[in-house]
Hints:
Largest sheet of chain A: 2 strands, antiparallel
Structural class of chain A: alpha+beta
Number of domains of chain B: 1
Oligomer: heterotrimer
CATH class of chain B: Alpha Beta
CATH architecture of chain A: 2-Layer Sandwich
Amino acid sequence: MKFWRLPLDAKDHSIPQGELVIIKDRCKGCNFCIEFCPNQVLKESSEFNKKGYHPPQVTKQGECVNCNLCEIICPEFAIYSELKTYKELTSEDILNYSKKFGA
Amino acid sequence: MKIRHRTLVPFDPQSTTRLREEQHGLHPDDVYLKPGRIPHIWCPGCGLGVVLNTYINGLKMAGLPVDRTAVVSGIGCTGRVAGYLNMDTYHTTHGRAIPFATGLALVRPDLTVTVFSGDGDLFAIGGNHFIHAARRNINLKILCVNNFNYGMTGGQAAPTTPVAARTTTTPYGNFEHSFNLPFLAYASGAVYVARWTTFHARHLVTAIAESLTRKGFTFIEVIAPCPIGYGRPNKLGSGLDEMKFYRENSLVQNDADPREADIGLKGKIIVGKFIDQSRPTFDQVYEENILKKFTRSA
Amino acid sequence: MSTPGILTGEFFINGDEASAEGAIAAGCRFFAGYPITPATEIAERMAKRLPQVQGLCLQMEDEIASMAAILGASWGGAKAMTATSGPGFSLMMENIGLGMMTETPCVVVNIMRAGPSTGLPTLVGQADVMQARWGSHGDYGVIALAPSSPQEMFDLTITAFNLSETYRLPVFVLGDEVVGHMSEKVIIPPPDRIPLVTRKRPQPSPECYLPFQAGDDLVPTMACAGDGYHVHVTGLTHDEQGYPVITAPVHERLIRRLVDKIRLNAAAIIRTEDVGLEEAQVVVVAYGCTARAAREAVDHLRARGQKVGLLRLITIWPFPEERIRRLAEQVRAFIVPEINYGQMVYEVERSAQGRAETVLLPLMGGAIHTPQEIVEAAEEYLS
């Protein structure tokens, strides 16, 4: 979908802002969360956890929209997100959205 | 006869204390997990953890309290699911999860009983029990994790192994035709039939929640990666690669004809909710047609 | 329709039907079975009677499923039973092992016919005695009862339920085709005269509860599904909290308790019927339908003044080895008629420790011993 401008009812909508919690020592490095995060918020870290895997780390702080996909796709119960706040919808967000998902 | 016993090592109540104290409660879903049991035994990249996770989220979505649920599982990697869930769980014999659950569900109609097991357990050694429980429409929620092989014993062929797939017991490629599980479930009488892969975690949560609220015999097949037992001999890459394969090759077709849902080694995988119908359950029919004939004695 | 709940009074019924009535009187409300001669009448009686007492009789797809279903029903809190004969008993062995490992109270009635394999489906045998003791793989203690009459089919089915609820294990009623199909007068007492035992349920809060921690009687309390204890029940070796632990010390602790809870309580479990043992020179050891011929033979010899006794095994497992050991010091010979090629006789011979002769009167199945052949065998050892 592609937006030409900020919708007139933009004020009625908002973007949830999540904060990710990573339980590093539970991670077995499957990379599901990193690969399937719709906003590519995560990447593999260079540090080793107790098991010898590289747990994910948050790279784009503030881009997590608390969709919880990482939480439900993690086989190890090693990551979850908490809703922090809601962000107003701006023209910039709409532009980014169109860039990402537009035709 | 005299017996000279070895000295018994007494039970140490502190044996899981460290795991409980250091590990339990770090994640909000830990309340659904038995204290001191995580980490689970499954390999990195295995899909079973995803299915366990989505089951917990399905329970939450369905609003089902854990005290009103029970999970019965058979043997194999998937059979270990029961041991991790913080509810009444029964880890039974190979293939016999369904008849065990049948007895449990029939004497406790107030409980929602889920049978969580693998493709080999449910459809090879337990195949007969599956079709009969479906025929009777026992109120059971079947979650079959299909990873196309016997993972626990080291990657042998299963009744779901696609033709040409290599396993340790089909070293020249599997030459047997495999089961189409949704079609089998539908033909046997299941009232709800769906198939998703572990990549479709969100659909899977919804499907599990839906099946938990349906009355009768429901069946969800979850295609899951087994990078060690199945992925490696078939050069499918890591668990993540198998997940990417599901993303690229799954066709979501709700209401698809289950007859068309065969799975090949590298072909498309049809996923979706195939059947959602209603049919009187065993308990309902028994209550209506039999028990009502007799007055309840004091 | 009028509801005949638990029956009371005198009835002319066969042993199979008496067993079904015993189960209902014992509080059994779930039966799962598969048709098999000569035990089918139990399933048929249950199918008719259980709905009348708001219970459920389920015909499963096979005996494997029947055994699994009664374990599930038992964990649901019900008293549950299945009934079968040799071929079905063989199929049940897998889940009998699960029942032993998970300490699940239930009753398995085996109306023995002659085997192996399909053998003589309609004719008598007693060759499942050792299978009942050792049939499932691994070590565990067992309790098996051997009724000799329809009345005992009723009484001992109740006893079997009480023992299974007391010691938490599948208990066997080893009937045979003769006793199962024989019709006799069966007296069913009023319900308040039938003592019943119900499994011990846990007291502590779920946080402190250890589902497989036993007290001095070696039997843990049982939290059933829906009780809020969130118990994990597994056929894997498990520790006191029910978690799988795959180590030798935990296995030693668990299996020793499974064996010892029967071995150390044997004196309280074992029941025999004794006839003229005090001064006997020859003792006939018999069980099931064979004990009827043995009784006739012993009565006949005693009427002639001969010092012959009968030790009728009501409990065949655990075996009354201490009784045999003490009797062996006084008697010349044990005569063991069995409808098999020698099973219980090994236990008798082992317990006699060479102090008395042990004589087997085997019969391969399909017929019963005549009192005459038992008399003749005993006479060889009488002065």
